[in-house]
Amino acid sequence: MSFFRKFTEGLAKTSKNLRDKIQEIFRPGAVTEEFLEDLEAILLQADVGVRATQEICESLRLESKKRAIRSEDELYEILTAKVKEIFDAIYQPLKVSEVNPTVYILVGVNGSGKTTTIAKIAKLWIDQGKKVIVAAADTFRAAAEDQLAIWAERVGAEIVSHQHGADPGAVAFDAARAALARKADLLLVDTAGRLHTKKNLMEELKKIVRVVAREIPGAPHEVLLVIDGTTGQNGLSQARVFAESVDVTGICLTKLDGSSKGGIALAIAKELRIPVKFVGMGEGVDDLKVFDPEAFARGLFSKGS
Ligand SMILES: Nc1nc2c(ncn2[C@@H]2O[C@H](COP(=O)(O)OP(=O)(O)OP(=O)(O)O)[C@@H](O)[C@H]2O)c(=O)[nH]1
Ligand SMILES: [Mg+2]
């Protein structure tokens, strides 16, 4: 499947939602104030957020003064270009260390998709012939190690784990040592889901980051906050609190396939100013893509397949 096609499919619910509504209000040649107001409401409903919505509508207003927008396709072209521009403004490619191992720590609230996303990232690397170790630093939830072990076996990653209830910092320590000793290309650290409001759990997270940083120079190369794309504005407030405790370098936006509100990626870009690095668009192990501004922008307004 082509790269763009995956985004088109993964964002199908959102693009259908947007296109169905826009079709109802669009009249060729007439980007009126009324149209812009309606468009604003449509974008806000798709979780695009106030700032990005205003920026998109303003640029459309300016563009329509320069030329008539004769068809819906022309309108989508303009919207796609603007959305891409918003993503481009804060885009940062995924950080990969020149010296092995590269280390990513995944954090986020319960059920956001951390463990599954770890398996998917591992698969992306392993498919390129790389060696991946996963660390089961979620020692909090009873079946967490087992769940990660099953995924690790399925995708061909090695796993470092301790017993249930062990110190997650100690798991991170062992995993960092193992990654160095076994010359892994990538170390992925799974962490327990936590309410972002629980102070002690946030301290635990800081410790995991510290341990990894001490053992491996330059690590962690990414601290990825996993946000369930269906949780809307709540996802944004989670992100703010996490970012106060740890230096979140990127977002993994999951479950976009189940959401008609994929516009949340724009709210994240505009309001959090943290780049999205991965997007999850399905439960399968291949349903994760490295974020791409153009592919995402096109997917948001594409006709579907
Ligand atoms: N449809 C869909 N489901 C997803 C996606 N990513 C994760 N899920 C599902 O979300 C559920 C929770 O995923 P986990 O990976 O266990 O989430 P977690 O953050 O590790 O959860 P805790 O360890 O309990 O905090 C699972 O049923 C996954 O299959 C996605 O991109 N699309
Ligand atoms: Mg988990």
UniProtKB/TrEMBL annotation:
SUPFAM superfamilies: Domain of the SRP/SRP receptor G-proteins (SSF47364), P-loop containing nucleoside triphosphate hydrolases (SSF52540). Keywords: Cell membrane, Cytoplasm, GTP-binding, Hydrolase, Membrane, Nucleotide-binding, Receptor. Its main location: membrane. GO terms for biological process: SRP-dependent cotranslational protein targeting to membrane. It is a peripheral membrane protein. Its EC number is 3.6.5.4. One of its GO terms (molecular function) is GTPase activity. PROSITE patterns: SRP54. It catalyses: GTP + H2O = GDP + phosphate + H(+). It comes from the Bacteria. Part of the signal recognition particle protein translocation system, which is composed of SRP and FtsY. This is Signal recognition particle receptor FtsY. It comes from Candidatus Fermentithermobacillus carboniphilus.
